[in-house]
Protein backbone atom coordinates (compact mmCIF):
# COMPACT_ATOMS: atom_id res chain seq x y z
CA UNK A 1 0.00 0.00 0.00
CA UNK A 2 2.79 2.40 0.88
CA UNK A 3 4.43 1.99 -2.53
CA UNK A 4 1.20 2.73 -4.38
CA UNK A 5 0.56 5.79 -2.22
CA UNK A 6 4.11 6.99 -2.83
CA UNK A 7 3.75 6.55 -6.60
CA UNK A 8 0.47 8.48 -6.69
CA UNK A 9 1.74 11.36 -4.57
CA UNK A 10 5.08 11.68 -6.36
CA UNK A 11 3.29 11.96 -9.70
CA UNK A 12 1.23 14.90 -8.37
CA UNK A 13 3.93 17.07 -6.80
CA UNK A 14 6.66 19.31 -8.26
CA UNK A 15 9.39 18.15 -5.83
CA UNK A 16 9.03 14.35 -5.58
CA UNK A 17 12.33 14.02 -3.73
CA UNK A 18 10.85 15.63 -0.61
CA UNK A 19 7.91 13.24 -0.29
CA UNK A 20 8.10 11.23 2.93
CA UNK A 21 5.50 8.68 3.98
CA UNK A 22 5.50 7.19 7.46
CA UNK A 23 3.35 4.11 8.12
CA UNK A 24 1.98 3.51 11.61
CA UNK A 25 0.31 0.11 11.75
CA UNK A 26 -2.17 -0.96 14.41
CA UNK A 27 -4.40 -4.01 14.81
CA UNK A 28 -7.21 -2.84 12.56
CA UNK A 29 -5.95 0.53 11.36
CA UNK A 30 -3.07 1.75 9.22
CA UNK A 31 -2.17 5.43 9.46
CA UNK A 32 -0.09 7.03 6.73
CA UNK A 33 1.57 10.35 7.56
CA UNK A 34 2.48 12.27 4.42
CA UNK A 35 5.10 15.02 4.45
CA UNK A 36 6.12 17.01 1.40
CA UNK A 37 7.33 20.42 0.25
CA UNK A 38 5.10 23.24 1.54
CA UNK A 39 4.38 24.37 -2.04
CA UNK A 40 3.01 20.92 -2.94
CA UNK A 41 0.50 20.53 -0.10
CA UNK A 42 -2.21 22.31 -2.10
CA UNK A 43 -1.70 19.97 -5.05
CA UNK A 44 -2.16 16.94 -2.84
CA UNK A 45 -5.28 18.31 -1.16
CA UNK A 46 -6.84 19.64 -4.38
CA UNK A 47 -9.91 21.82 -4.75
CA UNK A 48 -12.27 21.28 -1.85
CA UNK A 49 -10.18 18.27 -0.81
CA UNK A 50 -11.21 16.18 -3.80
CA UNK A 51 -7.73 14.88 -4.62
CA UNK A 52 -6.88 13.80 -1.09
CA UNK A 53 -10.38 12.32 -0.80
CA UNK A 54 -9.79 10.20 -3.88
CA UNK A 55 -6.43 9.02 -2.52
CA UNK A 56 -8.09 8.10 0.79
CA UNK A 57 -10.76 6.14 -1.09
CA UNK A 58 -8.10 4.12 -2.90
CA UNK A 59 -6.27 3.40 0.38
CA UNK A 60 -9.48 2.35 2.13
CA UNK A 61 -10.35 0.00 -0.75
CA UNK A 62 -6.98 -1.71 -0.50
CA UNK A 63 -7.15 -1.89 3.30
CA UNK A 64 -10.68 -3.33 3.22
CA UNK A 65 -9.37 -6.38 1.37
CA UNK A 66 -7.20 -7.04 4.44
CA UNK A 67 -10.05 -6.36 6.86
CA UNK A 68 -8.46 -3.11 8.03
CA UNK A 69 -9.05 0.62 7.77
CA UNK A 70 -6.57 3.13 6.33
CA UNK A 71 -6.14 6.78 7.25
CA UNK A 72 -4.09 9.42 5.44
CA UNK A 73 -2.86 12.51 7.27
CA UNK A 74 -1.17 15.33 5.36
CA UNK A 75 1.33 16.84 7.79
CA UNK A 76 2.65 20.37 7.20
CATH topology: GMP Synthetase, Chain A, domain 3
Spell the H/E element sequence: HEEHHE
> Uncertain spans, ≥5 residues at pLDDT below 50?
none
- Judged by helices, strands and strand pairing, the structural class is alpha+beta
Largest sheet properties: 3 strands, mixed
Q: How many helices does DSSP assign? A: 3
Corresponding CATH superfamily: K homology (KH) domain
Q: Choose one word for the global shape.
A: globular
Q: Indicate the CATH architecture.
A: 2-Layer Sandwich
**Total discrete domains:** 1
Kindly report the average pLDDT value: 95
Termini separation: 22 Å
For the secondary structure, the number of strands is: 3
Gyration radius, to the nearest Å? 12 Å
| Widest sheet: strand ordering | 1-2-3
Helix content: 40-55%
Percent of sequence in beta strands: 25-35%
CATH class: Alpha Beta
Summarize this entry quickly.
With 76 residues, the chain is α+β, with helices and mostly antiparallel strands.
How would you characterize this protein structure?
- The protein has 76 residues and is α+β, with helices and mostly antiparallel strands.
- The chain has one domain (2-75): GMP Synthetase, Chain A, domain 3, CATH 3.30.300.20.
- Helix content is 41%, strand content 26%.
- It has a 3-stranded mixed β-sheet with strand order 1-2-3.
- A hairpin with a 3-residue loop joins strand 1 and strand 2.
- The longest helix has 15 residues, at 50-64.
- The protein is globular, with a radius of gyration of 12 Å.
- It starts with a helix and ends with a strand.
